[in-house]
Amino acid sequence: MEIYDLRVTVERIEGRSVCGLQVGDFFEVTESSRLRIPAGRHFCIYALQSILPLLPAKQRRLPDEDWLEQETFAACPDAEERLIMRIERIGERTMRASDLT
């Protein structure tokens, strides 16, 4: 099966940065379930929890008319921060379904 590696990047912060993230901060999901944050960086767990439910679907090719195939942005739930994240597909790999959880 084909599966995408993903990068989630802080696109913009429309309010005040409470958690210390900055525009350009990112994490990657590779090999289906490996979360990678650059050395010496962090990613807010509340921003992370808001985007995690979308990632399994973004790892797979969806029908062109599916809203999630077209949408690339998600927001952190902190209303004062208004942190906007972009989900990008950064690579594609073939994996056996029996290797996935």
Topology diagram in text:
Blueprint lengths: L1 E12 L12 E5 L3 E3 L8 H7 L3 H4 L8 H4 L2 E3 L7 E12 L7
Antiparallel strand pairs: 1-2, 1-5, 2-3, 4-5
Structural class by secondary-structure content: alpha+beta
Oligomer: single chain
**Strands, total number:** 5
Mean pLDDT: 92
Please work out how many helical segments DSSP would assign: 3
Taking the alpha carbons of the first and last residues, their distance comes to 13 Å
Question: How many structural domains can be distinguished in the coordinates?
Answer: 1
Task: Give structural attributes.
single chain, alpha+beta, 3 helices
Question: Care to give the gist of this entry?
Answer:
With 101 residues, the protein is α+β, with helices and mostly antiparallel strands.
Structure description:
The chain has a five-stranded antiparallel β-sheet with strand order 3-2-1-5-4. The longest helix is centred in the middle third of the chain and has 7 residues, at 45-51. Strand 4 (73-75) and strand 5 form a beta hairpin. The mean pLDDT is 92. It has helices spanning 45-51, 55-58, 67-70; strands at 2-13, 26-30, 34-36, 73-75, 83-94. The protein has one domain (2-99). It has 101 residues and is of the alpha+beta class.
